[in-house]
Amino acid sequence: xxxxxxxxxxxxHSHSYKLTPQREATVRVLLEREDDHLSAEDVYLLVKxxxxxxxxxxxxxxxxxxxxxxxxxxxxxGDGVSRYDLRKEGAKHFHHHLVCIECGSVEEIxxxxxGEVEQIVENDWGFEVKDHRLTFHGICRQCQAAAxxxxxxxxxx
Amino acid sequence: xxxxxxxxxxxxHSHSYKLTPQREATVRVLLEREDDHLSAEDVYLLVKxxxxxxxxxxxxxxxxxxxxxxxxxxxxxGDGVSRYDLRKEGAKHFHHHLVCIECGSVEEIxxxxxGEVEQIVENDWGFEVKDHRLTFHGICRQCQAAAxxxxxxxxxx
DNA sequence: TTATTAATAATAATCATTACAAACTAATAT
DNA sequence: ATATTAGTTTGTAATGATTATTATTAATAA
Lengths: 157, 157
Ligand SMILES: [Mn+2]
Ligand SMILES: [Mn+2]
Ligand SMILES: [Zn+2]
Ligand SMILES: [Zn+2]
Prior knowledge:
Chains A, B: This is Ferric uptake regulation protein. Chains A, B: GO terms for molecular function: DNA-binding transcription factor activity; transcription cis-regulatory region binding; zinc ion binding. Chains A, B: It comes from Oceanobacillus sojae. Chains A, B: One of its GO terms (biological process) is negative regulation of DNA-templated transcription. The structure is a homodimer. Chain A has a three-stranded antiparallel β-sheet. In chain A, strands 5-4-6 form a three-stranded mixed β-sheet. Chain A has two domains: 1-90, Winged helix-like DNA-binding domain superfamily/Winged helix DNA-binding domain (Arc Repressor Mutant, subunit A, Orthogonal Bundle), CATH 1.10.10.10; 92-157, Ferric-uptake regulator, C-terminal dimerisarion domain (Dna Ligase, domain 1, 2-Layer Sandwich). Chain A is flat. In chain A, helix 2 packs across helix 3 (40-50) and helix 3 crosses helix 4 (56-68). Chain A is of the alpha+beta class. In chain A, a hairpin with a 5-residue loop joins strand 4 (96-100) and strand 5 (106-109). Chain A has six helices and six strands, in the order ααβααββββαβα. Strand 6 (128-139) of chain A pairs antiparallel with strand 6 (128-139) of chain B, so a sheet runs across the interface. Bound molecules: manganese (II) ion (MN) (2 copies) and zinc ion (2 copies). One manganese (II) ion binds next to loops of chain A. The site of one manganese (II) ion has 5 residues of chain A, from loops. Chain A binds a DNA duplex through helix 4.
């Protein structure tokens, strides 16, 4: 944890930004909830628990800054809000997501998987890939199991 | 054009919706600007040119409906608005996009490219893929060329 | 110390989207 | 033909996320 904070502190310094107490509090929340996909409001409420004096605008500003420095990625799953997702340690590219259209759960894939596809895009389209956003929409393992169970019930009532 | 309209009309009918004049006007705009990525406001203004009596709320409702029926896909490139993108004729999956971080241009890729990756996701994550969203961020051909030119100028002033 | 600058908090303003109420249309039943 | 109904549209108000503004505070430099 402290290690990650130190690293982020350095990234900020290298762009002549400071790790203010508010920024640190925000980063700590993001680290604590690394697997979640929090909205700005979510982050704000969580930061407020430990640092009640923080303002919503500051959280927005901090998230925006972290986003510019590629420390977090701003994503949008189609509900009306932006969500902020910490980059995995040392990751060069943003990770992928599996969104279940039944239950809304979001799973993460850290494996890159797109190496070949990016080669094709660079070669055939002449496009120099810097980053990507990949989300699969479908049915998660749990919902598949639930559907099978329901079918069985219908077949043998 | 008429052929596409007919097909969409049938898709609506099969879900017991009608192709009202307003819906048809909206669809026509989407067909005419198939390669663009229009916001609801964009669509509204374009429809208004030919059918000045249409209301903004109707356009939103129509786009929402077309989106539910998978006739258009609702996407978000990170600016604050949703954009509505007609599915390519007969396409089972949504197409991909190349967004240039220099000039903002958006190019389309109709080739699927993700067959293998989806296999891996299904096998290794047990996730049943129904659709996907893939966007590459990077430098488009034009901006690459422009950058090279600039470098040459700097080297030989 | 005093001046300068960066960062924050509180709040107002903006802007995309949605909700709502009244009017309209087309289809169906009487 | 007339009344009824469900579905649709319009214009506008309301909502809600995000951004801009302004006064204040903290940090830094002169
Ligand atoms: Mn994630
Ligand atoms: Mn497209
Ligand atoms: Zn699920
Ligand atoms: Zn470009």
